[in-house]
Amino acid sequence: MRCLLLIYFCLILFGCESKKSKPIEPLSTGKVFLSEFDNNIKIKSLSEQAQKGDTAAYNKLYEIYSLSDHSEEFLYKAVTMAETYNYSQAYFDVYIILRSGKSNSKNSFTNKLANYYLLKAFEAGNSHSRFQIEERFNKREISSLPTSREYWNEILKN
Questions:
Q1: How far, in Å, CA of 135 to CA of 42, rounded?
Q2: In whole angstroms, what is the distance from residue 72 CA to residue 99 CA?
Q3: Rounded CA gap, 51 and 44, in Å?
Q4: Alpha-carbon distance 133 to 143, whole Å?
Q5: pLDDT tens for each residue of 39-58
Q6: Is residue 53 left, alpha or beta, with left meaning phi > 0 and alpha meaning psi from -120 to 50?
Q7: How large a percentage of the chain has pLDDT more than 90?
Q8: Rg (the chain; Cα; Å)
């Protein structure tokens, strides 16, 4: 019996080959979503669904585009979804894509356009827009905000 245990122990000890394990390469979120962005079949399928008003497909597309650092390329899809389906999240996404923290003559119109879409998102009931409005317009009193139409007319005057 001892002999069998000794043989069994020797087999286990010497029978296992030591393999060098490859170091696990960390995957960044950007790399994961970049690979999804490069998947033309998936992007085309999600785009077709979003064009028909599928908000889940639209949200997945936005996630892929924004996390793969292609949000500016998504602008057309966001505007289309917002204007065609009055989708509040799409209005807010347009604001996120267009906004700039800097205020200068180069991006003045873009910032005004971003503000317009922020107001549209708020009017459409987007839950994320309230904090951004308070920050962007320096107002705590929502009732004193211009409507998106009033703001648009103000943009056109300048």
A1: 37
A2: 11
A3: 10
A4: 12
A5: 789 889 999 999 999 999 99
A6: left
A7: 47
A8: 26
